[in-house]
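I have a small job for you when you get a moment. Would you make up a two-line entry for one protein for me to read? No commentary is needed, just the two lines. Write everything out right here, beneath this request.
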Amino acid sequence: MTTLARNVFGVLDRAAEQWFADRPAVGFEGRAVSFREMRDRAVRVGRGLDDHGIGAGRSVAVMMGNRLEWPETFFGLAAIGAVCVPVNVLLTGPEVAHVCRDSGADVVIVDEIAQDAVARLDPAPAIVITVGEVEVPAGPKVIAYEELLAAEGATLPGPGPDLGDTFVLYYSSGTTGLPKAATHTHDGVLWNSYSQLQGLDLDEHVRYALFPSFSWAAGLHNLFLALLWVGGYSEIRATGGANGDRVVEFIESSGATHAMLVPSILRALVARSDLLERLRASALRWVVTGAEPVPRRILEVCERELPACAVCQGYGLSEFPTMATVLRPEETVAHEGSAGRPMAMTDLALLADDGAVERRGRGELMLRSPATMVGYHQRPEENASVFHEGWMRTGDLAEIDDAGFVSIIGRTKDMILSGGLNVYPKEIEDVIDRIPGVRESAVVGVADERFGETPVAIVVCDDPAVDADAVIAACRGELAGYKRPRRVFVRSEPLPRSATAKLLKRELRPWAEERMQTV
């Protein structure tokens, strides 16, 4: 067995052979697996795949809920040099078919959660590897996962992939067309995980409650892989049903010290005194959150009710780094709404309207890091536009202050041009979110005959006393006239979000337009 960390598998190999051996690495539903056992099972998976002709460079789509077989498959593919294509477990059959066609994946590894999607794949895959009880339509060659584990011998074929070889294709959510894949090498994946050790103060004492799906970049690449370097432990929660009660129950039962929770879950927790009391009595000492800035009122409740638990905010991308910036707990009050400062291996800049690259001010956020993707898979035109003078353009509008703190204003495509003036939705949303009783808000640009576009606010409230007039009054006191929303719609229905908790403004624009025509 090689002990050279020349690829992603090599880190697990070293952890198992030299560093942590029989120390527990990961657990799932009452079963804990050591570093050595996870390594050995990954080797057998890799060996079994290779025995079936699935080797270096071949794309393999992985469609499973969270379970132990996911990291085993991930490291097995890494060991033999195959290309891992994680498939969002929420996609439908036609969406999965696009991912498979675009990536060239004619091999799929599935459990029951993806059974219906596999049945609708056109063309059908050449090989389907089933984890658990899965019904597969006639046509593909079907291999049971347990057959892979039964592969003879504990050695891998060949020397394995090098750092510069492609390892993972992460597909976007397809908000502006068909999903495209960010291409990541072994080198980029390792840098992404290693950079988190210092930035997040991770060590061998961490017990991480893993909530995000492994099919999303945050699932595998935030904390989970980083803990391999230091011998920390991850407890995997099965996919689905993550409400406040279940989140707290899992944190309690797993003895977790660390967790990654999206802002919507934090909102649910701080609204329940009984859940806060249980968290105070738990081992939880650290929470990282992201996808959007957390309002100060949420942070203030956490600070008051969970004094032993630090809340840390981060910003990242599936193009990597998955955690490019971090706002440390002691910085949250003085820098409300900020995404923090760049991690040690991330460099940030802004692309100004005139095309200049600036270090401070406002513009499109750009980054460079050894973890950043090498490009979008088979998208030469998009690659030509996304990379600028050695920087990767994120598509996010941002401000960077003199101390290097980054504030995300919104997406470049979300900026509203009203009467020739730029209106940044986040500026308006920040004002609205400070109104007592407001749970969340979103501002979108709607077509306007006079100004071209005009801002419209959609506000979700807990307090029935908060109405459109109250929102307009608050905006009048803090915003210039051209920035104030022309219309305000107050509703009780939560705002639409993606599987990764990102706000879907593309769904709110037509909703607001329809309301403006009928109200």
In short: The first strand starts at residue 24 and ends at 28. Residues 8-184 form a domain with the Rossmann fold fold (CATH 3.40.50.980). The chain has a mean pLDDT of 92. The CA atoms of residues 44 and 138 lie 27 Å apart.
